[in-house]
Design brief:
The chain has about 500 residues and is α+β, with helices and mostly antiparallel strands. It has helices at about 30-35, 60-70, 110-115, 125-135, 185-190, 240-255, 270-280, 305-315, 325-340, 345-365, 375-380, 385, 390-400, 400-415, 430-435, 440, 450-460, 465, 475, 480-490, 495-500; strands at about 5-10, 45-50, 50-55, 75-80, 95, 100-105, 145-155, 155-160, 170-175, 175-180, 205, 210-215, 220-225, 265, 285-295, 320-325, 370, 420.
């Protein structure tokens, strides 16, 4: 996970298709960088037109100075990158002649692709850059993981996101500039807000799409490189399908945790996080389970605290349990709102527990957290799946809308503490397989995610944890109770309370 920012002058001061009589200064790039500096602290890079400079983790002040000096330049483009290094420290922007590349993400099969394509690369960023230069968008279906990147190649800018939208990328434009960034708050710092005269406002590059911006014509084109669709329904016995799920989950966890050192798991004691912890233990990984639970005064202990303790004790998982009182909860809500750029009560309630887990993990020197996000959509974990006429079609709809509903929220909640989020359930092979599982294997009138629970049993997980009823993150952690209690103390509705914390 990293932070990327880019801004391109629509009418360059140098000779070109759109010369202008005066050069308009760039907006505050320093403020934009500061707004998402948390996205990476392991190194920095800046490209001003064709000139690239790099700064190591001790040179943040020099990097900030370099940014400030560019704001009055006559350059056509400025690209900024701050690195969160998990596999090798390779500073960006990467470049080759007149091509410049900014990358945020993790492609887990990069070494396999490196060997297959005969490419020499030190990490996945270098591999993706070389592949994109070699094959353009044709290489993207082979990439397993979450990513967002920007390629400035002569007069063409390409912005691209992974198939599900695990990594964020936003863009905006006005009469003078076209800009893009990992977080919308960076675009706001650059002065890009809703233009009421034109109706233009910052937007997200859609998941599974590439955006092309032609600098010469100032025209934007958005094209899909991946389309979510339902595969043919699997014709097989339930036991065999459950066994295949178990095997694919093991492969996904193995691939996403290979060589990254100690990591954490967002842990509720529910089926999804218990599977991740169980497989991590089987793989002999070094990991810690992080659980957040609210309790204050006469409020009963949150369900996640009880279940996390029981699961950790019986399965011998290392557990870090943080009990949150009213004071800590309010502080968390305030910081979470700033991190996720929203006061939506449901989003804040979910994200607050992730934000606190990220803080705890960062204090332990952890750089990566695993989450069970994606399981509900793939294996029919919601009430709406029980009501659906076509269960897999409903799974597909949910998967297609995870980007705006869940993924951006969780990314920003954890990156506020410079923690990378990884999602084994969104492994593309597992997702494609799960969408073909017969709906009646997934859900009944009495139980959700049935086939996944049976796969967990096959893995050897104790039955009481396999069949624990689901609790949404904000309810299991008790953060919904904290929000209601704090709002009531101030005689406000939840909406009024959260707005007051901005």
């Amino acid at each position: 996970m990293c932070g990327i920012i880019g801004i391109i002058r629509k009418h360059p001061a140098v000779s070109g298709t759109h010369p202008v009589p005066s050069c308009i200064p760039f907006p505050s790039l320093s403020s934009a960088f500061k707004s998402q500096a948390h996205r990476g602290k392991d190194g920095y890079g800046i490209a001003v037109d064709n000139s690239v400079s790099y700064y190591d983790c001790t040179d943040k002040t020099a990097f900030s100075t370099a940014i400030t000096t560019t704001e009055n330049s006559t350059a056509r483009s400025i690209l900024l990158h701050n690195l969160h290094a998990v596999v090798n420290t390779v500073l960006q922007p990467l470049h080759d002649n007149n091509s410049f590349f900014l990358y945020n993400g993790e492609v887990y099969n990069w070494q396999e692709l490196q060997q297959h394509e005969g490419i020499r690369a030190r990490n996945d960023a270098e591999l993706v850059f070389q592949l994109v230069m070699k094959k353009r968008e044709a290489c993207l279906p082979a990439l397993r993981g979450g990513f967002a990147f920007a390629l400035l190649d002569g007069d063409m800018l390409t912005l691209c996101r992974d198939r599900f939208g695990e990594k964020p990328l936003h863009y905006a434009e006005n009469k003078e500039f076209f800009a893009f960034a990992s977080e919308q708050k960076a675009l706001a710092a650059l002065g890009f807000t809703t233009d009421h005269s034109t109706g233009q406002q910052p937007a997200s590059v859609p998941a599974g799409h590439c955006l092309r911006y032609d600098i010469g014509t100032a025209k934007t084109t958005i094209i899909p490189w991946h389309t979510l669709s339902l595969p043919a329904e699997i014709n097989g016995k339930k036991q065999g399908i459950a066994s295949r799920i178990a095997s694919m989950l093991l492969d996904a966890v193995r691939e996403q945790t290979e060589g990254i050192g100690p990591y954490g798991i967002l842990f509720s004691g529910g089926i999804d996080s218990t599977i991740l912890a169980w497989l991590s233990k089987q793989l002999k990984r070094t990991f810690t389970c992080y659980t957040i639970a609210y309790q204050d005064g006469n409020v009963s202990e949150a369900p996640d605290a009880m279940w996390a303790r029981r699961a950790a004790e019986e399965c011998q998982f290392p557990l870090s349990l943080q009990i949150v009182d009213d004071v800590k909860a309010e502080e968390a809500f305030k910081k979470t709102i700033a991190a996720i750029e929203s006061t939506d009560a449901m989003k804040v309630g979910v994200a607050a527990s992730f934000f606190l887990a990220g803080q705890a993990a960062a204090k332990d020197g952890i750089k990566v957290l695993l989450s069970g996000l994606g399981s509900e959509e793939l294996f029919a974990g919601y009430e709406r799946h029980q009501k659906a006429a076509d269960i897999n079609a409903e799974c597909l709809v949910g998967l297609a809308t995870m980007d705006e509903r869940d993924l951006q929220r969780d990314d920003q909640a954890l990156m506020a503490s410079t923690i990378e989020l990884r999602l084994p359930f969104l492994d593309q092979r597992l997702a494609a397989y799960a969408l073909g599982i017969p709906g009646e294997y997934k859900i009944t009138s009495e139980q959700k995610k049935v086939i996944l629970r049976e796969a967990a049993e096959q893995l050897g997980i104790p039955k009481e944890f396999c069949w624990r009823p689901k609790k949404a993150a904000q309810y299991g952690s008790g953060m919904d109770k904290a929000m209601a209690r704090l709002a009531k103390k101030k005689a406000k509705t939840r909406v009024e309370y959260l707005e007051g914390l901005r």
